[in-house]
Amino acid sequence: MSTLTLTGPYWVTVRQYRRTLWLAGAGVLLSLMGMTWLRYWDGRTVGTGHDTGHSLLRIAVEWAESGIILVPFLVGAFVAGPMVARELESGTYKLALTQSVSPTRWLGAKLAVSGAVTVVGTIALIGVYRLGWANLGGTGSFLWYEPGTYVSTGPVLVAQALLALGLGALIGQLVRRTVTAMALTGLVTGLVLLVVGQLRWSLMPVKTLTGPLAETLGVPVDIASLETDAGLLTTTGERLPSHACFDRTQQWDVCPADMNVTGQYSDYHPASHYWPIQLIETGIVLALAALALYAAFRVLRARHP
User: What DSSP character marks residue 52?
Assistant: First the structure.
């Protein structure tokens, strides 16, 4: 058998959802063409003198960012609804089981095809986003630690999409109602990603910068760094809120003697922490995806021994 030839349930899955696959491929291709065109016109005048190619590029990247972060939800909803719940709800899955296909192989084929498309498509979208972001990174809302930029530029997005795929397979079996399964998968996926996102900046120890008291609040940190905490330091090493002295003296750089304040501090993540945090978070999300897939197959075996 040729490595490029699909047979059995894999061929059936591709055939069954070929329109969706074509639409997904066309969407990625059009995105690539559009972003390439905008990169070409970056810095040039387009239309009127007030509408530059750079402005168009910024708008396009912002839209791309908004769309890309929805990819995990779209993947989870599609797997939970049309791929799993709808077939269980209508009973059409029984036809596959009569063709000498085991329940495990039936679900495995669906997840293998959707997983391969998800990984390839998500990586392609990351490449499209990076193509436009390369000319904007480090400016405005496109700094590496901004939520949209952080997710859209690294492997964590692929892991999130695979997590949604696993949750969709699990919830689709448990609920067996197409619309309900899609909505519930989106909700659960959002909650899990929200929790992981809240823990993101705790995955690596921060660096600390200290300095003397000054009229400006906080120790100056490079714009490319993410400041996570700031405040005042005392002679014992105790940390106080930034406004502790101001509350008593109404001046930022004057502190009462009894407070024993010696200076200020800032905790921050430098830009060099981007890849380590990306890889750690990706590993965590992939582990959760593996657990969801394991649970999905356990439920399948329990209901279809």
Answer: B
Give the angle subtended at the CA of 304 by the CAs of 159 and 162, to the nearest 5°: 5
Instruction: Give the three-state DSSP class for 241.
Output: coil
Q: How far apart are CA 58 and CA 133, in angstroms?
A: 8
pLDDT on residue 32: 92
Instruction: Check: CB of residue 194 under 8 Å from CB of residue 222.
Output: no
Burial of 16: CB neighbours in 10 Å, binned 0-12, 13-18, 19+? middle
* Residue 3 confidence (pLDDT): 43
pLDDT of the residue at 46: 54
CB 267 within 8 A of CB 206: yes
* Residue ranges of the chain with per-residue pLDDT less than 70: 1-6, 43-51, 96-100, 137, 215-218, 305
Position 96 scores a pLDDT of 66
Q: To 10 degrees, the CA torsion angle through 65, 72, 31, 35?
A: 30
User: CA–CA separation, 189 vs 194, rounded Å?
Assistant: 8
* pLDDT value, residue 97: 66
Question: CA 234, CA 149: separation in Å to the nearest integer?
Answer: 37
Residue type, 39: R
Angstrom distance (rounded) from CA 21 to CA 2 = 21
pLDDT, one tens digit per residue, over 150-169 is 999 999 999 999 999 999 99
pLDDT of residue 45: 59
Within the chain, how many helices (H) and strands (E) appear? 12, 4
C-alpha 92 chain-centroid distance: 34
Interatomic CA distance for residues 169 and 185, integer angstroms: 9
Residue with tokens 């300095």: 211
Distance CA 262, CA 233 (A): 6
